[in-house]
Write the structure tokens for this entry.
Amino acid sequence: MPHSKQQSLFREDEYQFVQQCHDWLSQSSDEYRPILTPFLNPREQYILKMVGQPIEDLNIFFDGGSVEAESQRAIITPEYFSKDNLDFEMTLFQIDYPIKFTTLSHPQILGALLGLGLQRKAIGDILNDEHIWQVMVDKRIFTYIQQNFVKVGRTTVKVTALPLNKMIDTSKAWEEQFLLVSSLRLDTLVAASYHLSRVVAKQMIESGQVRLNWTVVEKPDSLITINDIVSVHHYGRFQLKGLDGRTKKDKIKAIENIIRR
């Protein structure tokens, strides 16, 4: 369980990850060496920063291949380490497939990778620009992927490693949006973000069409907090980036980044 002062910052279902953060920080401090985490989603990155903030003799560095990367690995180090000398152990690869005859999708690619027995935490961002698909992974599993990742659905594929500086730029995909909402409930934010009725948003959540930080959530009254990413089937996804107080009518002023499909 989180330390008492931090407990109010996190949801109950996050306590296990909070404890993992404490373990990583303690290990780096006790053993005087860098600790490399698996890929973390933006909410997990935020939690690690919050847990590590009070510790003065440790630094936390993040990298996912680019500044805009959603999934990033962290390295926790004693303060005398420089980020320039750290290896985040990532490999970027591109998927080669017959683009004239078929199309691929994010769920298909992720499903095919997980179908190989890979852990989700070993896979970073899956990036797309028209017909081009790239994936960031833990470099320790790339050889296995190269040998075994040969099908996405019925489509034959092969992979080619790329330099990290060839990573697709996704920064233009996100738009900033300002909302006035009555609460930070999941159904309220889904409805406001995509101009849906609360009834439709509630039905989508209850039918498993909405994911919170990549996990299906079927409770419309789930509360959203800073850096959460919400994915809405057929509509896109959004990330709560900040709160800017309340209006005179007691509406919450929320700032989010959003992608519309």
